[in-house]
Specification:
The complex is a heterodimer.
Chain A: H1 2-7, H2 9-15, H3 18-35, H4 37-40, H5 81-117, H6 119-134, H7 137-151, H8 154-157, H9 161-189, H10 192-200, H11 204-212, H12 217-240, H13 252-260, H14 269-296
Chain B: E1 2-13, E2 16-28, E3 33-37, H1 44-52, E4 60-68, E5 71-72, H2 78-87, E6 89-92, H3 106-117, H4 122-135, H5 141-144, H6 154-166, E7 172-176, H7 184-201, E8 204-209, H8 212-218, E9 221-226, E10 229-235, H9 236-241, H10 246-254, H11 279-287, E11 296-306, E12 318-329, E13 334-338, H12 345-353, E14 360-365, E15 368-369, H13 382-385, E16 386-389, H14 403-413, H15 420-433, H16 450-462, E17 468-472, H17 480-497, E18 500-505, H18 508-514, E19 517-522, E20 525-531, H19 532-537, H20 542-550, H21 558-561
Parallel strand pairs in B: 3-8, 3-9, 6-7, 7-8, 13-18, 13-19, 16-17, 17-18
Antiparallel strand pairs in B: 1-2, 1-4, 4-5, 9-10, 11-12, 11-14, 14-15, 19-20
Helix pairs in contact in B: 3-4, 6-7, 10-17, 11-15, 14-15, 14-16, 15-16, 16-17
C-alpha cells in the first residue's frame, strides 16, 4: 500500500484530504443514483400512472402529516421528491456531460490548431472566441432556441429540446477549452521534442494529437471538471428561466422553478430540497476540480 | 572568520528525513575566496543557504556549529538573524535578471538597502550609492543610477547586485553561481571584481559553482563536495593540481582542457556486459552506410527576423540573426561552432533543419540543395539524413511516451522496419550501443538522469540512419563527468559510422576536444574558420583572441603558481 502511495503522489494527497474524499463520495453517490434511477426510484415522474394526486403536497418524513413512504415528501402532483430529483439529476447530468464532450472536442481541436499554426488562423479562432465570450450563455441559448423553432417542424421540436439545450451549453463552454489548449500548446511548441517531430516531417495532425495533446492533458482535465459544474449550473439556470426543459420532463432546474411557486405557501421542501441537492452536486464537483488542479500544478501545493 | 563544523541539514519528507548534507567542515578566513565546487545535487547551495539562514522550508540544521567570528549563527533569534543577514553576510544569486526588482530604479534599491542597515539621511545614502557604483566599475554612476534594471546589460546588472551586497560592508558574501548565466567576457569582469573586493576590502567570499575553471582562476582555497559530503578541501593549487581523493581526480580528468586536445576522456569504464547486444544496431547502421559521408556547404546564408513593431503603418526593421554566412563542412568531419549567447549558433542549426526560413543564400547537403524552411516538403530526403541532438535532454524527449516508442518512431516513420517487434528489438540494441541497459525501452523519460536522457536522444538520432548530425550544445545542461562520457560516446560513434557532425557550443574547451575544424560566430557573422588546432593556437581574428584569453584556464603546471 505504501509503495503504491509513493508511486502515485495524487493518491497519497487524496487519502490525506478529507474535503476531497467527502466531495468524491457525494459526487459518486449522486452519479450512481442518477444512473440507476429507474431501479432505485419509488415512482417514475414521467409516467402519470405511477403516482397519485391524492398523495400531493405531503411534507418530509420528520414533519407532521407525512407519509413514511415518501421520505422527502411529494410535490403538488403527488410525485415523490426523491424520485423526481434522481430523474432530474439524470437528465441534468446527461445534458451536462454531452455538452461538455462537444465543447471539449471543439475547443481542444481548435485550440491545438491555433497554437500549432499560430499567425492568422490563431487570430481568427481567438477573435471568434472573444465574440463568444461577449455573448451571455442565455443569449446563445435563446438564439439557438429561436433558430430551432424557426427551421424545425413543430412536431419534432419538443423532442429536440434536449439537443438544443445541449448545443447551447456546448457553444458557451468551448472557449475555455480552446484558450487553455492554445496557451499550453504555445508552451509545448518551444519544447525540443516538438521541434524534433516537426523536423522529421511528421504530419501536423500527428504532432498535435500524438505528441502535444498528451502533454497538455493536465490543465484540460481541470477545465473538464470545473466546466462540468458550470454546465450543470447553466442547464439549471436555463431550465429555471423556462428556456430549457418543459415541466413534464423535469431536470433539476425545472424542479426548482416549480418549487418557486410554493416558496411562500408553506411547502418549503418542494423548492429547497432540489436546490440543496444541486448545490451539493456542484460544490462537490468543484472541490474535486480544485483538487485535480493541485495535483497537476505542483507549485500550488 | 566563518567556521562550519560537522554541519548536517535535513529535509523532512513524508517517508522520513532526507539528509541533504552531512559532516561538512569548512573554514573561511577574512579576504579569502573559498570555492565550493561539486556536481548538481552535491549540496553546495544548501551549505550557503544554511550559513545565511535561508534554508528552504521545511529544511533545518540538524547538527553541527556555524560560527561567524564570535557569533554562533545557530542560536540567533529570528530578529538577530535578520540583522546579521545584510549587515554581516550578503548573498549574490545566479540570475541578475530576477534578483533585482524590475519596477524600482537602481538608485531606489541601493538607498533602500543602505538605509535599512544604517541610520543615514537619504542624501548621504545616495552619495554612498554613487560611490559604490563607481567602485564596482560603472562609469558615469551619478546619472546611470537613475536607470531601471532592464536598461542595464546582464554583466552590469550582476555588478549592481554585487554593489547591493557590499553596500552594508559585510564580512562574508555568499555567491551562488554568480557567473553561470553570463558570457565569458562578462564573467571575467565579474570575477576580477570579486577578486578586487576580496583584496581591497578584506571581504570573504564563499564562491559556489560547478565550473572548475572559475575556481582555478580566482579561488584561494577550495572544497569539493559530492552527495552532501566534503570530499576534499585545501589550497586550490593543491586540490586541483594534485588531487588526493579519487573523486577529485576523476573530476579533474573530466574537465576538458583548453590548451590541448585529448583523444578520449579518462572516465570510469561502464560495465561492458551489454555491449554485444549492440551488434544488431551496429550492423544495421553500417548496412545503411552505402552513401559516402555527406558534407554540407552554406553560401552567403542570411536569416532575418521581423523586429519589434514601432509603428502601425511602417514595416518593422528586420533583426539580422545570421549575416552572409559561408561555411563548408567536410564530409566525415566534425565542425565546431562557437560563439556567445545571441551570436546565432542555434539559428544556424534551425536553418539547416528547416525550422527557420533564411532570407537569402544557398544550402547544399552533399549534391542536393536544401529547400528553405516551410518550402521543404515533409518527405524531403534531408529530413532523414540530417538529425539533431538538442541542448536540453529534459525537453527533447516526449515525457508522455515510452522510451521504446520514442526510439521506434524514426524506424516506423522513415519506413526502415515494417514489423513492430523488429523495431522494438532494434531500439533495444541501439540503447546498448549508446551504453544503456536495453530494458530501458519499457520506461519513461522521467525515470532517467540528464546524461542517460542525452544518450537516448543520441540513440533516437542514430535510428534515423543520419549522415549529418547537428549537436546543439549537447552537454551544456550536464555535469562535467557526464559531459565527458557523452563526448566520448559522440567521438566513438563518429569514428564508427563516418558521420559528419556540426558541433555547436559556447564552451571553447569542449569544442577543442571534439572538432576537426572550428568556426567562430559573433552577431551572426563568421569571424574566423579554420582547422581547430590553428584556430586555438594561432587565432587570426581579434575576437577569437579575446575569447580565448578570457576563458578561465587550468594552469598546466600548478607548481609554478605556488
Amino acid at each position: 500500500m505504501i509503495a503504491l502511495l509513493k508511486k502515485y503522489e495524487g493518491l497519497w494527497l487524496f487519502v490525506h484530504s478529507p474535503a476531497a474524499i467527502v466531495a468524491a463520495m457525494v459526487a459518486v453517490l449522486i452519479f450512481l443514483g442518477a444512473v440507476f434511477a429507474p431501479w432505485v426510484a419509488l415512482v417514475n415522474p414521467y409516467d402519470l400512472s405511477s403516482f397519485s394526486l391524492f398523495d400531493g403536497l405531503l411534507p418530509p418524513a420528520w414533519q407532521d402529516g407525512s407519509n413514511p413512504k415518501y421520505l422527502l415528501g411529494t410535490d403538488d402532483q403527488g410525485r415523490d421528491m426523491i424520485s423526481s430529483i434522481l430523474y432530474g439529476a439524470r437528465l441534468s447530468l446527461v445534458i451536462g456531460l454531452s455538452a461538455l464532450t462537444i465543447a471539449a472536442i471543439l475547443g481542444v481541436g481548435l485550440g491545438l490548431a491555433a497554437g500549432y499554426y499560430g499567425g492568422r488562423f490563431d487570430a481568427v479562432v481567438m477573435r471568434i472566441a472573444d465574440v463568444q465570450l461577449a455573448l451571455p450563455a442565455i443569449l446563445t441559448a435563446l438564439l439557438i432556441d429561436g433558430i430551432a423553432r424557426g427551421i424545425l417542424p413543430a412536431a419534432i421540436q419538443q423532442d429536440l429540446r434536449v439537443a438544443v439545450l445541449t448545443l447551447a451549453i456546448a457553444l458557451s463552454l468551448w472557449v475555455n477549452f480552446a484558450r487553455t489548449a492554445r496557451a499550453s500548446t504555445f508552451v509545448q511548441m518551444n519544447k525540443e521534442y516538438v521541434q524534433a517531430a516537426i523536423m522529421m516531417g511528421q504530419r501536423p495532425t500527428r504532432v498535435m494529437f500524438v505528441h502535444i495533446l498528451p502533454n497538455i492533458l493536465g490543465p484540460l482535465l481541470v477545465i473538464l471538471t470545473v466546466d462540468l459544474a458550470s454546465a450543470i449550473l447553466l442547464e439549471a439556470t436555463l431550465s429555471f428561466l423556462g428556456i430549457g426543459l418543459p415541466a413534464d420532463s423535469p431536470s433539476l432546474g425545472t424542479l426548482i422553478r416549480i418549487g418557486m411557486q410554493f416558496l411562500l405557501s408553506g411547502e418549503w421542501w418542494i423548492l429547497w430540497i432540489p436546490t440543496l441537492f444541486l448545490v451539493a452536486l456542484v460544490v462537490s464537483i468543484n472541490i474535486l476540480g480544485d483538487f485535480l488542479r493541485d495535483i497537476f500544478n505542483p507549485r500550488l501545493r | 572568520m566563518l567556521t562550519i563544523k560537522d554541519l548536517a541539514v535535513k529535509f523532512p519528507s513524508r517517508f522520513g528525513d532526507f539528509t541533504a548534507i552531512e559532516d561538512v567542515d569548512m573554514e573561511i578566513k577574512p579576504g579569502e575566496i573559498h570555492g565550493l565546487v561539486g556536481e548538481s545535487g552535491a549540496g553546495k547551495s544548501t551549505v550557503g543557504a544554511a550559513v545565511i539562514g535561508l534554508l528552504q522550508s521545511p529544511g533545518y540544521v540538524a547538527k553541527g556549529s556555524l560560527r561567524l567570528g564570535e557569533t554562533d549563527l545557530r542560536t540567533l533569534t529570528p530578529e538577530q538573524a535578520h540583522k546579521v543577514r545584510g549587515d554581516r553576510i550578503s548573498m549574490i544569486f545566479q540570475d541578475p535578471q530576477t534578483s533585482l526588482n524590475p519596477l524600482m530604479t537602481i538608485e531606489d534599491q541601493l538607498i533602500e538597502t543602505i538605509q535599512a542597515h544604517s541610520d543615514v539621511t537619504e542624501a548621504a545614502a545616495r552619495q554612498r550609492a554613487v560611490d559604490l557604483l563607481e567602485e564596482i566599475g560603472i562609469k558615469d554612476a551619478a546619472t546611470r543610477i537613475k536607470a531601471y534594471p532592464h536598461q542595464f546589460s546582464g554583466g552590469m546588472r550582476q555588478r549592481v547586485v554585487i554593489a547591493l551586497a557590499i553596500s552594508t560592508d559585510p564580512e562574508l558574501i555568499i555567491a551562488d553561481e554568480p557567473t553561470t548565466a553570463l558570457d565569458v567576457a562578462v564573467q571575467s569582469q565579474v570575477l576580477s571584481l570579486i577578486q578586487r573586493l576580496a583584496k581591497e576590502r578584506q571581504i570573504s567570499f564563499m564562491l559556489i559553482t560547478h565550473d572548475i575553471g572559475v575556481i582555478a582562476q580566482v579561488a584561494d582555497r577550495v572544497t569539493v563536495m559530492r552527495k552532501g559530503r566534503v570530499m576534499e578541501t585545501g589550497d586550490t593549487a593543491q586540490v586541483l593540481g594534485a588531487p588526493e581523493h579519487p573523486y577529485t581526480q576523476a573530476l579533474m580528468d573530466a574537465v576538458p582542457p583548453l590548451d590541448r586536445k585529448l583523444e578520449r576522456f579518462r572516465v570510469p569504464e561502464a560495465n561492458d556486459a551489454s555491449s554485444s547486444l549492440g551488434e544488431l544496431a551496429e550492423n544495421w547502421l553500417l548496412e545503411g552506410q552505402q552513401q559516402a559521408p555527406t558534407g554540407l556547404s552554406l553560401r552567403n546564408l542570411s536569416v532575418q527576423f521581423s523586429g519589434p513593431r514601432t509603428s502601425l503603418f511602417r514595416k518593422p526593421a528586420p533583426y539580422v540573426a545570421l549575416d552572409d554566412v559561408t561555411l563548408d563542412i567536410k564530409p566525415g568531419s566534425i565542425m565546431g561552432l562557437v560563439g556567445e549567447s545571441g551570436s546565432g549558433k542555434s539559428t544556424l542549426a534551425k536553418a539547416i533543419t528547416g525550422l527557420v526560413t533564411p532570407s537569402s543564400g544557398t544550402m547544399m547537403l552533399g549534391d542536393t540543395a536544401l529547400p528553405f524552411g516551410k518550402s521543404r516538403s515533409r518527405l524531403h530526403p534531408s529530413r532523414q539524413l540530417v538529425q539533431m541532438v538538442f541542448q536540453d535532454p529534459y525537453s527533447s524527449l516526449n515525457s508522455r511516451h515510452r522510451i521504446g516508442d520514442i526510439l521506434a518512431e524514426p524506424l516506423w516513420f522513415y519506413g526502415f522496419v515494417k514489423d513492430a517487434d523488429e523495431r522494438e528489438k532494434l531500439a533495444a540494441s541501439m540503447l546498448s550501443l549508446v551504453g544503456m541497459q536495453p530494458d530501458a525501452i519499457t520506461k519513461y523519460p522521467h525515470q532517467f538522469s540528464g546524461g542517460q536522457r542525452q544518450r537516448i536522444a543520441v540513440a533516437r538520432a542514430l535510428l534515423a540512419r543520419p549522415r549529418f548530425l547537428i549537436c546543439d550544445e549537447p552537454t551544456s545542461a550536464l555535469d562535467v563527468s557526464i559531459q565527458a562520457e557523452i563526448l566520448n560516446l559522440l567521438k566513438d560513434l563518429q569514428n564508427k559510422f563516418g558521420l559528419t557532425i556540426l558541433f555547436i557550443s559556447h564552451n571553447l574547451a569542449v569544442v577543442r576536444q571534439m572538432a576537426d575544424d572550428t568556426a567562430v560566430l559573433r552577431n551572426g557573422k563568421i569571424e574566423e574558420v579554420g582547422e581547430t588546432h590553428s584556430v586555438y593556437t594561432a587565432p587570426q581574428a581579434a575576437y577569437t583572441k579575446s575569447l580565448l584569453s578570457l576563458t578561465p584556464v587550468m594552469p598546466t603546471s600548478w607548481a609554478v603558481e605556488t
